[in-house]
Write a structure and sequence with these properties.
It is elongated and about 70 Å long. The longest helix is centred in the N-terminal third of the chain and has 27 residues. By secondary structure, the protein is an all-alpha fold. The protein has four helices and no strands. The model has no long low-confidence stretch (mean pLDDT about 90). The protein has one domain: Four Helix Bundle (Hemerythrin (Met), subunit A) (Up-down Bundle). The protein is about 75% helix and about 0% strand.
Length: about 140
């Protein structure tokens, strides 16, 4: 059935969880910062080590599994999208509590942006539930 694409989807799920956690920890810290920090740089770093590779891995797993369809891989990709959406929704609710000095464009834009990305990831996972196995034609 599913070979390496299952492990790629698991890695994508882990990276989605990591990114959501990092953003929520940063936003929680920005509500009452003890040390001055640049939120734009931190967020860019979190995107480059978290959600960008996670999206690439989810897309790779989707492309590898779309030919035959897999509920397991689709479920993992769907779970990654749900985790990303829930994490960004939580971060979005924290924005109003962030210190006004740190409430910059990047901090306010990232949660809605990645909520949109999460819908695309969830759609890709849901597509794999719908895909049926193609019959193998035997010519000889």
């Amino acid at each position: 059935m599913a070979g390496i694409e299952k492990y790629i989807a698991i890695a994508a799920l882990g990276l989605f969880v990591m990114f959501a956690g990092e953003i929520n920890v940063l936003y929680n810290y920005l509500t009452n910062p003890n040390v001055e920090v640049e939120p734009e740089a931190k967020i860019l770093m979190y995107i480059s080590i978290g959600v960008a590779p996670a999206s690439s891995l989810a897309g790779t797993a989707f492309i590898m599994a779309k030919r035959y369809g897999s509920r397991q891989i689709g479920g993992l990709i769907l779970a990654g999208g749900i985790v990303l959406f829930a994490g960004m929704l939580s971060a979005n609710y924290m924005i109003q509590n962030i210190d006004p000095n740190y409430r910059v464009y990047t901090v306010e834009t990232i949660p809605p942006l990645f909520m949109g990305v999460s819908f695309a990831v969830m759609a890709a996972g849901a597509f794999l539930f719908r895909t049926k196995k193609r019959p193998i034609k035997e010519f000889f």
